[in-house]
Amino acid sequence: MTSLRIAEIFGPTIQGEGALIGEPTVFVRAGGCDYRCSWCDSMHAVDSANRHDWAVMTPEEVMGEVRRLSGGKPLTVSISGGNPAIQDFAPVIAYGKTEGYRFACETQGSVSKPWFGDLDTLVLSPKPPSSGERVDWKAFDQCLEAAKGCGQTVMKIVIFDDKDYAWAKAAAERHPGLPLYLQPGNPEVDPSLPVDLNQATDRLLWLIEKVTGDRWFTPASCPSCMCWSGATNAASEHRNPDMSDSIYSNLKQLGGDTVVPASPEQAELERVQNPQSDTAYNVRFTAPEFTSLCPMTGQPDFAHLVIDYVPGEWLVESKSLKLFLTSFRNHGAFHEDCTVSIARRLADFLQPQWLRIGGYWYPRGGIPIDVFWQTGPKPEGVWIPDQGVPPYRGRG
User: Fold this and answer.
1) Phi-psi label, residue 123: left if phi above 0, alpha if psi -120 to 50, beta otherwise
2) Degrees, nearest 5: CA angle 72-76-80
């Protein structure tokens, strides 16, 4: 049976960009991508480090959620990502079309799939130089070939600067038969923040002045607002179909858009019941790029944290833990305070059988500091590997 990695499903809202701007839409955002664009605003759906936050769903479950959100009334379903082309959405499209739903897909054109031909709209969005990626035009042409049965195929290019603009003109010359939509790039990459309408308008006016000044009248210039609900990004959180009646039903952060807490005090840890509470086992979290600030100078400090714990009745929900650790990036405290306070808060919140933390701090002023704390002796009979972080050494 086909299974799909889904980062989120949300809507209905109004499509805010491209060929289908203004259409009521439910968005299905796939997890996983073969690109790492420098200005990506959907890293939660791109980076495999977030894969534990993605839901694994069958095509029937995906359409069930779309149906629930739309109230069973057919509309446009936009399949995006990440890069949705690395997965098989053919069954989703087939199920939905029998009920009258229309399907659009946006992909960078790096991977072709036979189901492109089943779409109502395929948006190919090759990435310009500012993305840091290089377009494989042979793969792009293969996508066009796969989409021959599609209702309409268009090209959309995001423009951040003059170099991108020149590149877009060359791309248009390469494919003069493709309807082209130009979109100003949005420098804000946090999808949880509201759309800055003033900034979006300024960027659009800049692009309009470029194309009209050059007498380049072929492309359409569209705003970059992703989706609209009033004047903010509208992203209602996706939940697995059976989540409401499970041990996960009280979770508020997993599966939805969240804002990084401004401080550790504002961060909210979440927990779920341990389904293996009758078994003693170790859980390890590694945070190799932990960041905080020196309380005196305001300079950043960096550490490699390793947290081990043997659960009791509770497991910490990993997304809430990531947000908690990220909240230290603007927090001023010495290495010792940061390390021990993290461990003590987890220990107080989870009441584990045992917990320890190793804080391996990178040198500042030529001296590395390592901080270790644990709740007590290691429990017997539990496999607890060494933390695997070698002592810091220079050339000596």
Assistant:
1) beta
2) 115
- Nearest-angstrom CA–CA distance, 194 and 258: 12
Q: Which of 141, 294, 337, 370 is catalytic?
A: 294
| Angstrom distance (rounded) from CA 385 to CA 130 | 43
Catalytic residue list contains 225: no
pLDDT at 226 over 60: no
Global confidence as pTM: 0.57
Residues 154-202: pLDDT tens digits?
999 999 999 999 999 999 999 999 999 999 987 765 555 555 667 778 8
Q: How far apart are the first and last CA of the chain?
A: 57
Could you tell me which of 326, 361, 327, 324 has the C-alpha nearest to residue 343? 324
Mean pLDDT across 347-360: 97
**∠ at Cα 192 (186, 198), nearest 5°?**
40
The yes-or-no answer on residue 294 being catalytic is yes
Q: Which residue has the tokens 């960078």?
A: 108
Q: Which of 41, 301, 308, 338 is catalytic?
A: 301
